[in-house]
Design a protein that fits this description.
alpha/beta; Rossmann fold; 2 domains; seven-stranded parallel sheet; 12 helices; 12 strands; 35% helix
Length: 321
């Protein structure tokens, strides 16, 4: 009887075909079938593939006694209990490079829409008006972009920003001054980046130390009229503090694609805050990224199961010897 690979969230066709071609394995897709179906499928599964929708909790891992691999089709692991997986010696694989360009481009799509008030102008025209004055925008050239995180995505954003004639500064404790220099970025302490930036763009990983890193204290430090873009993780920002800063004008506008929790609650104050542009976690949703992430994670999973290649695992160092 073949071993089972459970695909709990949507995965691109190319990736599914690669998994189905693996000899000795069968693929079961459980997306949209309910928690009972997923739980039953996991009871004898050897691998679980997820995206951001399915939360892989300690309880879920405990329901899969044969589980050997957890594969995240993407780069973030905050929806996975990595500590529990490590305790059970289950590698957690990711596909970190597949959607970097899509997210970086979307970051600028949001920023340009925010600067030029595209959403408001479109809504006004669709409502039958021809009113240009309220939608006067601002240019990016000669503005200072403050990046919080300059990994794959942040580095690509920096490259795009230079094409717009922006000065780029950044905070990232994991990046050396030599790496930053190669990206044309000046490294600075976080509070200094916030103080100097005309635009703040978030690309940090979510952890206990970065949760609500953009809080009321730091928003008070920011330039009056700063713009904020978040395509990383919603919990990097304290929503209540951001809404207050939008209301009092300290923050001139915010474009958000991620939230804590997701989906965004119907009664969230963000929905009625002034000068916000909200989208439903679309940054990686391009045809190209969907194909790349599916192929990358399927390749990593195939290598892990068939060749014991765990080079894509993020938690090997946590395994007890």
């Amino acid at each position: 009887m073949p071993d089972r690979i459970v695909v709990a969230d949507g995965l691109g066709k190319a990736g599914l075909e690669m998994l189905r071609a693996m000899k000795g394995y069968e693929v079961e897709e459980t997306k949209g079938k309910g928690p009972e179906v997923l739980q039953k499928a996991l009871s004898d599964a050897v691998a679980l593939v997820v995206r951001s929708e399915t939360k892989v909790t300690a309880e879920m891992i405990g329901q899969a006694p044969r589980l050997k691999i957890i594969a995240r089709a993407g780069m973030g692991t905050d929806t996975i209990d990595v500590a529990e997986a490590s305790k059970r010696r289950i590698p957690v694989l990711t596909a970190p490079g597949a959607n970097s360009n899509s997210v970086a481009e979307y970051t600028f799509a949001l920023l340009l829409a925010l600067c030029r008030k595209v959403a408001g102008g479109s809504a006004s025209l669709m409502a039958g008006k021809w009113d240009r004055k309220p939608f006067e925008g601002t240019e990016l050239r000669d503005k200072t972009l403050g990046l919080i995180g300059i990994g794959r995505i942040g580095g690509r954003v920096a490259s795009i920003a230079r094409g717009f004639g922006m000065k780029v500064i950044a905070h990232d404790p994991g990046v050396s001054s030599e790496q930053a220099e190669s990206l044309g970025v000046d490294l600075m302490p976080l509070d200094v980046v916030i103080q100097q930036a005309d635009v703040l763009s978030l690309h940090a990983k979510l952890s206990s130390s970065t949760r609500h890193m953009i809080d009321e204290r730091r928003l008070v430090l920011a330039k009056k009229g700063v713009l904020i873009v978040n395509t990383a993780r919603g919990a990097l920002i304290d929503d209540a503090a951001l809404v207050k800063a939008l209301q009092d004008g300290r923050v001139a506008g915010a474009a958000l694609d991620v939230y804590d929790p997701e989906p965004l609650a119907a009664d969230s104050p963000l929905r009625t805050a002034p000068n916000v542009l909200l989208t439903p976690h679309l940054a990686a949703s391009t045809l190209e990224a969907q194909k790349r992430v599916a192929v990358e994670i399927a390749s990593a999973l195939s290598g892990a199961l068939l060749k014991n290649d765990l080079s894509a695992a993020v938690n090997l160092s946590a395994f007890p010897k």
